Prior knowledge:
Helix content: 25-40%
Distance between the termini: 50 Å
Number of strands: 9
Strand content: 5-15%
Structural class: alpha/beta
Radius of gyration: 21 Å
Number of domains: 1
Number of helices: 12
Shape: globular
Low-confidence stretches: 1-90
Amino acid sequence: MAMTTPQNILKQPLIRAFSITGLIVACVFFLQSPVSFASEISPSGRSESEPSLNASNINTSKAHESTTQKSEADTNTESPTPLWNGRDRKLNTKDMRLYEKDFFRIFYYTDGTNKVDPADKDNNNIPDYVEDISKQFWASHRIFCGVFGFQSPLGAPYYKDVTSIDIFILSSNSMRGTLGMAFSSPIPAPLKKKGELSLRVFVSKGFDFRLSSTVPHEYFHLIQNGMSRIRNKWYFEGLARWAENSLTQKQYYVDPNWDYQKILNSKNGLIYLQSLSYKNGGLFWVPLSRKFGEGDNITLAKDDPLRTLRYSDNSPVLRDTHFTGGTFMRLFLKELHKADRRIEKDFNLSAWNAEQSTLRRNNIYIIEALKTSTEIYEENNEKD
């Protein structure tokens, strides 16, 4: 383990001038609207080349902790939002630590309202909660990008210069009462070379991640954002709800007579579908995943570290290898990426903003991408 003091950080030539400003920019997040909010999940569960991580990395990978440069805002212990000072927008880095595994970087606090549970069963000076969160993010990446071939956020069409994914563990108060937030816009990566960008995910420290599906939900949003600018909620949140099943196996009842074509070809069906967001996970995307991919499973090699990956309490990270629809959804996101180009051409659009990403006109392009994906999937299956 390497402990880096503020003085040593500023002596490093690559980040001497960048460390403070980069960190400040990284956390001016209250000026931006988050892309999405993860829904609360009840305890019952109802309601790039790519970097590799081998078994030895899981158990023995070194953490890089750093106490970053302090500002005058650090003395304001009564601040209701201790992550940053609202008057001068300086990052409050008092008691902040950084833990790294591959391209995932976990920023957490050891004191104050954002303090994580200090329990450390393996006595490696990294809180178990922090290590467990990193395992869940890595497992989500392994399943989506390693097993089913989704494009990793690193190197995705809209994230070419992104080199890390930064996860901030914060209090429920700092999170505005939500469990997770994924941001679509890359920012200068704190404590990295100039020109390197990072993506941000905020997660609350106040939930049991072993029962919650927040991490795979938010990580899948990064995959979606990397492939398409379209974020109409019935697709964006509904499909992320499907993605939750990769690590938390929820029970969904699907009517055996369910017919996606009746929905897509019915005006009233589409109106109802497009009026929902999270609920579309169980009403549309999960049934669709079973229609196109019932035979899909999380297939792992015998020596794949995901097989033996466990949380600090020794419970398995991967509980079930049955996860339908991964191949089909990957095809769909590729078609949705093409839909971006058609929208730009049809509406002479040179740049996207948040409003354009959710306009009703996008719905017809989502439907077309779905229909094209079903045709490609069925054609490929016939060849097999």
